[in-house]
Amino acid sequence: AMELIEHVNDPHAFVQTLASMLKPGGALVMSTINKTWASWAFAIVGAEQIAKVVPPGTHEYDKLVSPSLLQSAFSDAGLQVDDKDWTGFIYNPLTGRWTLAPGVTHINYAVFA
């Protein structure tokens, strides 16, 4: 579920539903936008209002998902996540490329459960 959970009203219920669809031993990969001042500045102000690469109003700050909230949702759904299972994404506007940035979760991040 990539770049989706920040648009749902109940992240815990969403994760529970996804977990219920996994086969035994199955994996879940999710990516989202962290709930930080940096993500607000880059994802909402920068991407939506200044660069206009995302339609205005696509993201609501109150619905952004911190790693601790997602960790709680995973735990409640019976999914295990280790610290090594989190990685960030960094966008370079000069090259137009995204790169993985392990441990850098202050804006965009992904997790493997």
Low-pLDDT sequence parts:
none
Instruction: Report mean pLDDT, rounded to a whole number.
Output: 92
Biggest beta sheet summary: 4 strands, antiparallel
Evaluate the radius of gyration: 14 Å
Give the amount of beta strand, in percent. 15-25%
- The chain-level structural class is alpha+beta
Report the count of strand segments.
4
How would you spell out the order of helices and strands? HEHHEEE
- How many DSSP helices? 3
Helix content: 25-40%
Shape: globular
Strand order of the largest sheet: 1-4-2-3
What is the distance, rounded to the nearest whole angstrom, between the alpha carbons of the first and last residues? Answer: 12 Å
Summarize the structure in words.
The chain is α+β, with helices and mostly antiparallel strands and 113 residues long. It contains 3 helices and 4 strands; from the N terminus they run αβααβββ. It has a 4-stranded antiparallel sheet, with no helix packed on it. A hairpin with a 4-residue loop joins β2 and β3. It is globular. The mean pLDDT is 92.
